[in-house]
Specification:
The protein is built from 8 helices and no strands. It is mainly alpha-helical and about 260 residues long. The chain is globular.
Length: about 260
C-alpha cells in the first residue's frame, strides 16, 4: 500500500467517523458502537504509516539542505525510511485482512438497514442548525484557553474543529444560495484552525520520534543523529509559536452562523 492509498483511505475514514459523530443523536446506538470500534481499529492500523511518512518528507529530508551534517541526516533518513516501509506493510496487511473485508460488508449492511431512533424528529434543517451551533460554541469556549491546553487537549480541539467543517460540507445544501458565501467563509476559517492545530500535533509526534532516535541511536552514529534530531526539534519548536498565534486569532473570530438552513 502506498502513501496516496493510505491518504485517500484516511480521508474517507475521517469523513465517515465525523458523520457518525454528527448524527450520533439519531443513530441506533448498539449497531453504531460496533461499527465505530472497527473503524477506529482500521484508523489505528493506518496512522503510523501517515505519521512516519510526514516526518520523513517534511522534517527529515529537508534538513540535509539546512546545514545539518550529512552523516546525521543520512542516519535519520535511513532509520525512518525503514520504519516507514514497515508501517506501510502493516497498513497493507490490515487492508488485506479478513477483518477488513468483514468491516466493508458490515458498514454497507449498517448503512442500508439504518433506522432512526424513535425520538422526536425536529427535521433535518433544525437538527443541522442545532448540531453546528452547539459544536461551534464548544470549540470557541475551548479555544479561548488555547495557550493553557495540553497537547492531547489541543488534539481533541482539532478533531472538534474538523467535525464542524465536515458538518458544513454535509449540511451545506440545506442553506440558501445567497448564504453559501457565509458557509464558505466559516469553512475556510475552520480549515485554517485545523491546519495550524494539525501542524502543532505533528510537531509533538515528531518530537517523540526524534527524541527516541537520538536516545536509541547506535554508538557509531549517536552524536550525529542526536544533533540532527535536536535540529528538527528546535526548528519545529520555533515554528510552533507562529502556529499558536494563528490558531488563537482564528479561534477568537469563530462565531455561530448568523444564517439558518431552509429555503
Amino acid at each position: 500500500m502506498d502513501s496516496e492509498g493510505v491518504h485517500q483511505m484516511r480521508v474517507g475514514l475521517r469523513r465517515l467517523r465525523a458523520a457518525i459523530s454528527l448524527f450520533a443523536d439519531v443513530l441506533p446506538r448498539a449497531q453504531t458502537a460496533r461499527i465505530k470500534a472497527e473503524l477506529k481499529w482500521l484508523t489505528g492500523e493506518l496512522a503510523p504509516a501517515r505519521e512516519i511518512d510526514v516526518f520523513v518528507n517534511e522534517s527529515v529530508r529537508p534538513i540535509a539542505d539546512r546545514g545539518v551534517p550529512k552523516r546525521g541526516a543520512r542516519a535519520l533518513r535511513d532509520r525512518f525510511s525503514a520504519e516507514r516501509n514497515a508501517a506501510f506493510s502493516r497498513a497493507g496487511e490490515a487492508v488485506g485482512s479478513a477483518r477488513y473485508r468483514r468491516l466493508l460488508i458490515d458498514v454497507l449492511e449498517w448503512i442500508e438497514t439504518l433506522r432512526q431512533r424513535p425520538d422526536d424528529d425536529p427535521g433535518i434543517p433544525a437538527y443541522a442548525a442545532q448540531v453546528l451551533g452547539r459544536r461551534i460554541d464548544k470549540a470557541r469556549k475551548q479555544g479561548k484557553r488555547l495557550g493553557e491546553l495540553a497537547p492531547d487537549q489541543r488534539h481533541k480541539l482539532r478533531i472538534r474543529i474538523k467535525k464542524i467543517r465536515y458538518g458544513i460540507d454535509f449540511f451545506g445544501s440545506l442553506y440558501r444560495e445567497r448564504d453559501q458565501n457565509q458557509l464558505a467563509d466559516l469553512s475556510s476559517r475552520l480549515k485554517r484552525i485545523q491546519s495550524a492545530l494539525g501542524s502543532l500535533n505533528d510537531f509533538m509526534a515528531h518530537r517523540e520520534l526524534a527524541t527516541d532516535a537520538a536516545l536509541n541511536a547506535p554508538p557509531a552514529n549517536r552524536r550525529a543523529q542526536a544533533f540532527a534530531s535536536g535540529f528538527i526539534v528546535g526548528q519545529e519548536r520555533e515554528a510552533a509559536r507562529g502556529l499558536m498565534q494563528d490558531a488563537a486569532k482564528e479561534l477568537h473570530r469563530l462565531h455561530r452562523l448568523r444564517i439558518a438552513p431552509g429555503k
